[in-house]
Amino acid sequence: MEEKRSTVLHRLILERQKGGTVTGIREVISFDEKEILLYTEEGKLSIKGGELHMKQLDLKNGEMSFEGRIDSLNYLGRKKDRKEEPFLKRLLR
């Protein structure tokens, strides 16, 4: 049986570096007061800062809101579309 993939869009809304909302979450990998690490529709997302707290988490709908001081947002191992890969790399597969 095939696994159905969700078509939830990944969206990141930052509110004055004091919190925000993320949609398109597949999994919460880890979280503490200094970092929240998520697996999203676009790959892993690291949110670093201080006094970070999850205000709301709904994994069924893939949504989370958080608050705290945000110092950085990084996508780690961002997934690529096949179109973005070099032509030669696709040809030699």
TrEMBL record:
UniProt xrefs under InterPro entries? Spore_YabP, Spore_YabP/YqfC, YabP_sf
Identify the domain of life. Answer: Bacteria
Protein name according to UniProt: Sporulation protein YabP
Organism, scientific name: Blautia aquisgranensis
